[in-house]
Design a protein that fits this description.
alpha/beta, D-Maltodextrin-Binding Protein, domain 2, six-stranded mixed β-sheet, 14% strand, 16 strands, 442 residues
Amino acid sequence: MKKKGFLPTFITLFILMLFIIIFVYSGKNEKITPEEPEQLTFRITWESHSGRGDAIQKIINNFNSENENINVQMIGGDEDHEEIISLLSTEASSNILVLPYRELKNQTTLSYLYPIGNYMQDELKYYYPEILKLGMDKNGVVYGIPWIGHSMCFIYNKNIIDELNIDVDSIRDFNSFKNVLAEIKNNSEYTGIGLVGAEHHDLSWMTTQFIYSFGGSLYDESENRISINSTETEMALDYYVNILSQYAQTGWEENNGVDVMAEFLKGNMAFEIQGPWGITDIWKNGRPFDVGTISFSQLGGFSETGPLMLCVSEAVFEQKKEAILKFMKYMLGKEALEEVMLGEFSPKHQEYYPFRVPVRNDMENGVFFRTYPEFKAFTEGFENPSLDMPVPEWTEIREKIYIPQLHQVIIGELSIDEFLENVEKNGEKLLSEKPVTGEEGI
């Protein structure tokens, strides 16, 4: 019997090792297909290709760069109720939406949203209780988290105030504010305050905050009735229409908010009532004078507010929960909110201008408010909000009754008492024709 030779054995082992090496090498160099990132869509209430859209897009780009496993696409939108309902009922692509607070008063809208509050307990502690309620249903379930917004303030011309040696710290209530306006009138040719009186939606924004400030209200949700016809409301409207008007600009009865801003810019008016845009309007026009702000809270009052809420589509939450929560927490965090406050870029002026302020109540030590302390007053109003839209149906009451008839009061064609009786009587008639959507839906 012949022994096997060394060479055949060596060749066999060599071939075997070669196969092993090729297999291992090919395994190491095999291309691994990366996992596709979770796709989210974020719908804002402005056009995506706008100054505000661009400002928000920068924040989203930062998030995407820090989270390779998540890709957020921003899309533009508006605040039209029918459009929002159509989107929520026909598509699941808008995972996270920016909605005005009044949408969360509507049961139809709530039926398409996920009750996100249980996952956001750490974030909820940063909001005033009254502003947080705007994101809840009638049972206290949170469907929307306050994000950014505005409140109205008294904006004043510092040049005029300094020239007349007026101590703005002495303005502690509405009576002392009236006294300052009287002082301006008696000691100068300046207009004391810019008022809105035209048949325009600005009229409702301006006057409703005085109604709340004097202890009145528009609608009693606990009793499901219009509550505007009260002594407190009568006092508030008397203060606005008959007292403040003594110190207002000529022709205020036909002026809206834009008209008032134009008059204030001329430098002959001491006070106006505006949101943050009142300051940026001065900035955009060359900063002809310095401005300061006084919140309605400083006078013991309630401020008209317009918070925008972050909400989640119920249809997609469970399958995209981890990515949605991560993005929500990022957008509600201090870093992102500081970026929001940097504002929108104006190609015309080659500057950035703030367009909203954060609703979180712990931002006062941030870079923005340290640099521009005059904007801090716009956040104080979130503690005591005046609600221009207490229930969805108030939209129709406001447009058909409240605004046109209040304008009649201002031009002397109707008394305050007659106005209040008409709003109550005709408003209740409108409400009786259809259910309150905050309770029963539509």
